[in-house]
Amino acid sequence: MPTTSETPPAPAPVKPQLIVAVLCFGALSAALMQTLVLPIQIELPQLLHASASDTSWVVTATLLGGAVAMPVAGRLGDIIGKQRVLVGSSVILVAGSVVCALSTSVWPMIGGRFLQGIAMGFIPVAISLVREVVPAHMASTAIATLSATMGVGGAIGLPLAAWIAQDYNWHTLFWVSAALAALMALSTALLVPHVADGHPASIDMVGAVGLAIGLVAVLVGISKGNDWGWASANTLVTVIGGVIVLLLWGVYELRRSEPLVDLRTTARRPVLLTNLAAMLIGFGMMAQAIVIPQLLEMPEVTGYGLGQSILQAGLWMAPAGLMMMLLAPVSSKLMTTIGPRLTLAIGAAVIGIGYLMALFMMGSAWELLIASCVSSAGVGIGYAAMPTLILENVPAAEAGAGVGINTVMRSIGTTIAGAVMASLLTSQTITLKPGTPAIPSVDAFKMCFLAGALAAFIGGAIALTISGRRPKAQTATGDLALAEA
């Protein structure tokens, strides 16, 4: 009797909507790390038995980890396959969260927070993967939604972390993030397909280390400038040294046949201008996240403070984060009808209008809620357009690295915003009682809103100068990638 061999049925393909949902959940979980410790930042010296100067690195370390990871993760995704890098980023987030949850002293906590920052590499890789795993008609909306999660995660993370820190032990913050990361790793491994999207190439380890050293030095100098003094030797050596390292890194990369980042592509006018706009819009996004909660929490006796608790301030800010997500379909529609260049310019203009509204709506929490929602709507529109502009102007083999660099530029903008807002808030102060610490005056808050508006409007003006036409060679590459998807 002849034997028959039966081929096992192929697994049913995962629906594109579910893939996008998994990628959005992962990006949101990674972005939550930005604001996870802000509600307990003042208490960290007592909790970790360290100085305020040392514990400030608990916040900075995550920023630095993300800045290092995003371009490197993007390049790794281009080489070995994006799904593998997504799973790896999720596992790193699990490890970093567990280290933080078990920490009782400052340096293990800083190490865990750095690992949590590395997991931010998930976001640009997920954005660059979308076009390979969803139909072409869904790509713009999916990219818009994924791009918005970077701002949404930070906005939602603040009230969530405040609630957990207020009602539970502070270690619970990190056990919750570990659980989210584990679910993120599992869902990505099981539901996000591993497509043959890798491009054979070597990993430029020297370039990765050089970029990491340069970025870390510059960002540390900027973020610590207020503490160290902008004219101090520490600040000048760190920033200038970092710039020198980045310049040497650039020379090295230009001589490589397989660089970590193709600077010739990055220097193309559309890519360069998009990245400059990203930095300014990143500034605009972070400025409100720093300034409005402080204004909400200022005591009412000041005459301008609104007397809200940390949790209340976080809840007033939460709708702004949701606004970014809700605007993703609008941004997608705008990109389809008028193109990503004008969409980016509109987003920047809306951010600036939101700041100008805040300047005249400081009298109550609900007025600041409206102003922050307007600014956040602009962030949602603008953030969605940036990766589309990058993907249209870089080869398919460099998509991950290109989006990663763009995301780093946003992070540089948020870092500069933190330094500038801190400088402005300490430039004009008042003292409520003799012997009490000085607090920002109402004019200092107004200067912050004007600075945020100015950065956004300049970003929008830069966006208008970006070429709206795709290079022919790369249009063919992009169309081929869409056809294969």
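The record above closes out task 2.4. Task 2.5 opens with a second protein, given below.
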Amino acid sequence: MRAFKYRLYPTKAQANTLSDHLRLHRELYNAGLQERRDAYRKRGKSVTAYDQITSLPEVKQGRPEFKELNAQSL
């Protein structure tokens, strides 16, 4: 099995964009995790991944900065 590593040399603008995207992805992931934890504590049942995926358009409407992120990565 082979592995390849590629070194990136982004410009300052690209590095800032990558940093912003990472921050937004981290925020969304942590919010989804917290939603699952809260639902399990309150009802004893977790929220399914499908439920969270179907709520993404509402998240994008409420938070316009999420619109610039790739839908597959969300």
